[in-house]
Structure prediction request, 292 residues.
Amino acid sequence: MKPDLNSLHPDRCRPLRGLNPLSCRSWLLVALLAFVTACVTSPTGRRQLMIVSPEVAIAESANAYVQTVRELDNDDELLDDPELARRVEEITGRVVASAVQRYPHTADWQWSVALIDDPETVNAWCMAGGRMAVYSGLIERLALTDDEFAHVMGHEASHAIANHTAERMSLALLTQLGIAVAARDGDENNPAALSAAALAAQVAITLPNSRTAESEADRMGMELAVRAGYDPAAAVSVWSKMEALGESRPPQFLSSHPSPDDRRAQLAALVEQMGSLAPSSPPQPYPIDIVN
Ligand SMILES: [Zn+2]
Prediction:
């Protein structure tokens, strides 16, 4: 049964020592958010903030993807390159096949890759629900091998599988909720109201940051690529290439993927262990849509 936020009497709330007094409603909201936070874990066992459900994130992402692809098409920015399309379809299909084996609920996703004609941009992304995009600059400027490209796609798919989109949306919503609580509790100069917003922000700060999500996607993505029959060492070489390129013109990928300082060392330490997951024969590519 949902608690009635308005039925609580303010006198029942006693402020904690050292904190400004908050209304019952604010404390209850923060307590509920903390409870929700404690109840959700990622595939690697990490505690996640999740007040936006993965289903909502997938539905919202579907709308955003359709709109993005339509705009790219209107601007003639989709890449018509049959040879590259076949390569992307084969490699991504094998990575997705290992994702579906490992996480069967993703079999229902709309796995797809939009090929974007942008030789300057080194980037790729995956929305909730398996809708992905690859910029031609990623493959061309880094001169990616098949194994390296597989690790990039494994990394991107893992962001979606680990519900990182829903997590980021939840953080944004939490920030808005904190502001809304502050607004309901009084004017912005009210110290109690400011404390409610600050406390909501503190809840967010205690959560793993995006670098932790990056490490999670690195590890999960490496496993997916290796289970798809690709060389585990390529997870390290792709980051070496990314770093080398960063010294001249920083790739977009690095700004949208904040890097833990020891990322390459973390990946290198996993190569031997991940090697034992290699299949005797690679999986058949899973059917995916190539949007071009
Ligand atoms: Zn990432």
Notes: The longest strand covers residues 112-116. Residues 155, 159, 214, 217, 257 surround zinc ion (CB under 6 Å). The chain has a mean pLDDT of 80. The beta strands are 112-116, 124-126, 131-135, 289-291.
